[in-house]
UniProtKB/TrEMBL annotation:
Gene3D superfamilies registered for this protein in UniProt: 2.40.50.40, SET domain
Subunit-level organization: Component of the NuA4 histone acetyltransferase complex.
Origin species: Coniosporium apollinis (strain CBS 100218)
Source superkingdom: Eukaryota
Keyword Mitochondrion carried by entry: no
All copies of domain SET, residue ranges: 350-480
Keywords: Chromosome, Metal-binding, Methyltransferase, S-adenosyl-L-methionine, Transferase, Zinc
Protein name: SET domain-containing protein
Biased composition (Acidic residues): 483-494
The Pre-SET domain, residue ranges: 241-347
Length: 527
């Protein structure tokens, strides 16, 4: 399309001009232009008369700050037109996991007609207005384009003689038909490179991307974060309540920090190991269970992680199997940073691969084998109030996916009302674990990890390997958080359960067919 090409060449003196994200409403079509360039039809944002919203075609280079809109367009297009974006040849996967451009797809369209262009330009600002377009179906340009300070802006033209195209008519059936057969591999690659770039910024061992299924990438709307973000109305407990263990020291014999459960104040609220109660401690425990004030440090406790041997750092069976809350040491503790009661706080230590599954969107795996009880990563996101979670659920853009995780571990014992609980939303902000799928027979489990035993509403959710996991095995957890003994027998071809998901007062959740493929699959999954 000549008018845009002229603009690009002028812009190349200044650098590639860019369309700004906030100026674009959406992208509605794609094509290969007469120069063989992939282009996208942009609908501009702004206050314009109805039906005369400016529209213009742009290359992926010009849309580098709008890649997430391009991705949204391509993902929707794929939903309606899957074959055009399927991988052609898995063998051509480059080592970066990026897609090779398939030469057969780079169809250079024969230039048929040109449009007349009026232009005015200065060093810092150039504008172009388009008169009658010979082929509206293809060469749509509807307004005045300006390049200023390396950014493209556009406005509806008021000049006489400029033909307007009704924006409601775009994309036309002819445009859609052309779009269907027009390659988008350059755009797919750009999007993928942006995701890979973001993954490379993450601290710790590499997180990589692998997709042998199609050309899509994880959503650019999603941002990787290293710590959860507390949103409006969410408050941690008063910082003054956060205290550390005062009687422990870095070297208490074995040079592992905290060593004696009876000395460590961090274990005050940790689960009691009832199997080790004796004649002295049993009566204290009974009083504790009856709700009386007792000295909890007298009761038998356990540290959560092995401190020596092959399994150093892995969860001990008492925590692994019974899933008691884990209380790690914190910055106020006297045991020092090398204390063995600090694992989750040091962050992810295993490599991860975000990969495309055949039928459940993206999933997560590791290239390394994981030991039973080994820490993988936390589930992070925006921590929001219950009311905000309900609002988001109702207004959700993700029809199929659910990323909300309720922080209700301590609700019952602290008599917290459901409306006072917080929820982690991992849809737009989170870590790689946001891509973990559900299995009815999972190989990972989620555990509660707290650094402040007095804070019952804000804590970490940490994933640990529940058994030894082979390299490359998909990492899964049970979304319903059921323990093995709670399992009900599920019959083959069981119909969808009629009751509501437990705890779902509003019945907002959806029931979807579970595709985990486990032998004991429950067949249906509440989302
Ligand atoms: C937390 S996300 C997991 C990542 C997701 N696959 C993606 O591509 O973003 C949860 C969503 O993944 C899909 N999913 C996960 N496990 C599934 C399963 N066993 N069966 C069917 N869909 C599943 C569902 O769409 C669910 O809402």
């Amino acid at each position: 399309m000549p008018q845009i090409v002229i603009l690009l060449r002028a812009g190349s003196v200044l650098g590639i001009p860019r369309v700004q994200l906030q100026d674009v409403t959406k992208i509605v079509c794609n094509r290969i232009n007469s120069d063989g360039l992939e282009q996208f039809l942009v609908v501009w944002a702004g206050k314009y008369e109805r039906h005369s919203v400016p529209l213009s075609w742009h290359s992926i280079n010009e849309l580098s700050s709008c890649l997430e809109l391009v991705q949204e367009y391509l993902d929707n297009k794929t939903r309606f037109d899957p074959p055009s974006r399927k991988r052609k040849s898995p063998d051509s996967e480059p080592s970066t996991n990026g897609h090779l451009l398939n030469p057969a797809e780079r169809r250079v369209r024969q230039k048929s007609r040109s449009s007349s262009v009026t232009s005015s330009a200065s060093d810092s600002s150039r504008s172009l207005a388009v008169t009658e377009l010979a082929s509206r179906d293809i060469d749509v340009y509807n307004g005045v384009i300006q390049v200023k300070d390396d950014f493209i802006t556009v406005k509806a033209s008021t000049e006489p003689g400029i033909d307007r195209i009704n924006s409601d008519d775009v994309p036309t059936p002819a445009m859609l038909s052309r779009a269907r057969s027009s390659a988008t591999s350059t755009a797919d690659d750009r999007i993928r490179m942006e995701v890979i770039h973001r993954l490379r910024q993450l601290p710790g061992p590499p997180v990589t991307l692998f997709n042998k299924i199609d050309r899509s990438s994880p959503p650019l709307k999603f941002q990787f974060i290293t710590q959860s973000i507390l949103r409006e109305g969410v408050e941690k407990a008063d910082p003054a309540t956060m205290t550390g263990c005062q009687k422990c020291r870095p070297h208490m014999g074995q040079n592992i920090g905290c060593e004696y459960t009876k000395k460590c104040d961090c274990l005050e609220y940790a689960a009691v190991d009832v199997k080790r109660l004796n004649d002295v401690t049993k009566p204290i425990y009974d009083k504790y269970i009856a709700g009386m004030d007792v000295d909890l440090s007298q009761l038998p406790k356990r540290f959560p992680y092995f401190s020596n041997g092959d399994n150093t750092g892995c969860l001990v069976p008492f925590y692994l199997n019974e899933r008691h809350p884990i209380y790690e040491c914190n910055k106020y503790c006297m045991c020092g940073p090398g204390c063995k009661n600090r694992i989750v706080q040091h962050g992810r230590q295993v490599d991860l691969v975000i990969f495309k599954t055949k039928d459940r969107g993206w999933g997560l795996k590791s290239t390394q084998g994981l030991r039973q009880g080994q820490f993988i990563d936390t589930y992070r996101g925006e921590i929001i109030t219950d009311a905000e979670a309900t609002r988001r659920e109702k207004a959700t853009s993700s029809i199929l996916n659910s990323y909300l995780y309720s922080l209700d571990k301590f609700a019952e014992e602290n008599e917290l009302k459901p409306e006072d609980l917080y929820v982690v939303d991992g849809e737009y902000f989170g870590g790689p674990t946001r891509f973990m799928n559900h299995s009815c027979e999972p190989n990972c489990r989620q555990y509660t990890v707290s650094y402040n035993k007095h804070d019952v509403r804000v804590y970490e959710i940490a994933f640990f390997a529940y058994r030894n996991i082979e390299p490359g095995e998909e990492l899964t957890f049970d979304y319903l958080d059921k323990d093995e003994e709670e399992e009900d027998e599920v019959e083959e071809d069981a119909p969808p359960p009629s009751q509501e998901k437990p705890g779902d007062a509003q019945g907002e959740t959806k029931l979807v067919k579970c595709l985990c493929g486990a032998k004991k699959c429950r067949k249906w999954l509440w989302m």
